[in-house]
Amino acid sequence: MHRLTSGTARIWRDCLFAVCFGASLWAAPILIAGCSSSRNSASTESLSAPTTTSLAADPQVNETLTNSCFDCHSEQGSGPWNAKIAPSYIFGANKARAVLNFSNWSNLDLKQRSAMASAIAAVVESGSMPPGDYDFFHPSAKLSDEQKQLMLQWTSQQIALPAH
Predict the structure, then answer these.
(1) Is 0.70 topped by the overall pTM?
(2) How confident is the prediction for the chain on average, in pLDDT?
């Protein structure tokens, strides 16, 4: 009987270790990135202001881009800590920034902007951006129907810009 108890205790100990180890893997990115509430909001605003003003004249477009896109698609992303535990953020933010980085938007020529705007329109229209797991951890990033329409209008304007 004692042997069964020690074997059961060993199983429980091993399970507890596995759970704690797994939790530490999820907590590590949070600890490394830090909590967004510990950042100075004035410095965050000053970092993102120049980038967003060059993207769109409409403040609602800027707000939508900042809230729903910048964490993965800009060097100025400053979303909440919980958004940074989404698997798509942990494993894909650097790849996403390599594909589309709004921090470099002003450096793109009109042809490149048009191509990027077409791609943005496609993923907004299909609902694949922001990714579902990211929306789960950062619910305010999920685009409403009105925000989707706003983004589609903005992308159509970017596509239609005349070459100088």
Answers:
(1) no
(2) 75
